[in-house]
Every structure is written in structure tokens, then in C-alpha cells.
């Protein structure tokens, strides 16, 4: 059965700083969270609260970082920050480093970014454990509100076969990240063999449409997906990672 889905950005949140109780700020701004809501949070808000910010002036680039920076026209200190967040450099081309992060994500520049950084000359890193952060935020929201909304933490990823970036789930708690339709029947009675819906990524992309990139609104509430919201935290965004043996690009 189809459902009506709505999404709106929370207004009035302050600039997030290290040590902030992000869940308390969200609860105060949202006011009326429901059990079936999905709280979608841009990762930079989580990273800033965790103190996952580095100052370029404090980074000493290695010889490898210096060589890559010279080859690709990048700041060697920025390159070093990317390497520090990576378990493997997969490809370097046109000023972009495609890496596998310590989390297992294959993405550009290990998610290390200057945009929306708290100050000039600083970089924002991905959260140390996005799934763990999602679980902690969900537990804190339940403590504060008595409700059990799901939590999705997002970042913008490029896609191998298409232009443009799309917000993607990197941390999930309380939401079924995948909806596996294999073995079910389509409208004509044919058995489905490959249909697995990336629910958490679809929610992340939906939320991104509800805010502008320069709006300063890192949190979006998505409603209408109560059938996908679970009592248990579930497997998290880790369930979305393609096994390395099946990865044609990584």
C-alpha cells in the first residue's frame, strides 16, 4: 500500500558546536515528534557536536600527501586529512581522491569537506561511528520526548553511473535500511529476482529536497514511513554497503 510522505526542515537550530546536546536541540525545535517520524540529520551537525573538526594549520603532510597534492593541485594538508580518514586509496584523478574510509564507505575525499566548516582553515570529518551516533541520538530523543522516531545521518555522495550528488544514509537507527522484494511477485505475477529498495538512501534524498544547501537547516523530519520505522535500532547503514567481492568499482 502506498503512503503519503512529507518532509520539512527544522528551523531555529543554532550553529552546532562541540559538546552540544544535538538531540535536545532537535527535540526543542521539533516540538511534536511522533513514533513513526524519521529524523534526518546532515552529518556535519553530528560531526561538529563530536568535535570531528581539524585545523589545516595543525596538519603535517606526509611525503605521500605532498606528492598527491602536487599531482592533483590540492592543499597537501587537506590531502593528509583525507588519507588519515581512509583505509585505502582506490583512485586519484582530476583533483578527486576516491577512497575507502575506515567505515567502509567508498566515496570522494573520505567525506572530508571545507563547506559549512565552523571557521576558515578548518575541515569537517565524517563521524567516527555514524551508526553508533544514530543509535545514541535515537536513545536520547526517546529519553527526552517519550517517542521513538528513527534517525538517519546523511552525507552527499556521487554515483558511479550518473552525474550529480545525492544525499545518502551513512548512519541509521530504527529504520529498515533495505526493503527486499526478491521472491515476491510483480503486478503481472512474475517473480522478482533483483529488487531491493534502498529505503534509508531514499529517505536521505527526500530530506535533502526539503532544504537548500545554504539554508543552515541540518535537520529534516520525514513523515509517512511509519511502516518502515522499527522498535529495534536494526543493522544500520552498514547493511547498505556492497560486499567487496561484488564491488565493481572499489
Description:
This protein has 250 residues and is α+β, with helices and mostly antiparallel strands. Helix content is 25%, strand content 25%. The protein is built from 6 helices and 12 strands. A 5-stranded mixed sheet has the order 1-12-2-8-9. β4 and β5 (96-101) form a beta hairpin. The longest helix has 16 residues, at 130-145. The chain is globular, with a radius of gyration of 19 Å.
Number of helical stretches of at least 4 residues: 6
Summed over residues and divided by their number, the pLDDT gives a mean of 91
Count of the separate structural domains: 2
The share of residues in helices is 25-40%
Oligomerization: single chain
Strand order of the largest sheet: 1-12-2-8-9
CATH class of the largest domain, named: Alpha Beta
The tally of beta strands, per DSSP, is 12
**Structural class determined from secondary elements:** alpha+beta
Poorly predicted runs of 5 or more residues: none
Share in β-strands: 25-35%
Instruction: Label the overall shape.
Output: globular
N-to-C CA distance = 36 Å
Cα gyration radius (Å): 19 Å
Characterize the main sheet. 5 strands, mixed
State the CATH topology of the largest domain: 60s Ribosomal Protein L30, Chain: A
Write the element-wise H/E pattern from the N-terminal end onward: EHEHEHHEEEEHEEEEHE
CATH level 4 superfamily of the largest domain: CofE-like
Known CATH architecture of the largest domain: 2-Layer Sandwich
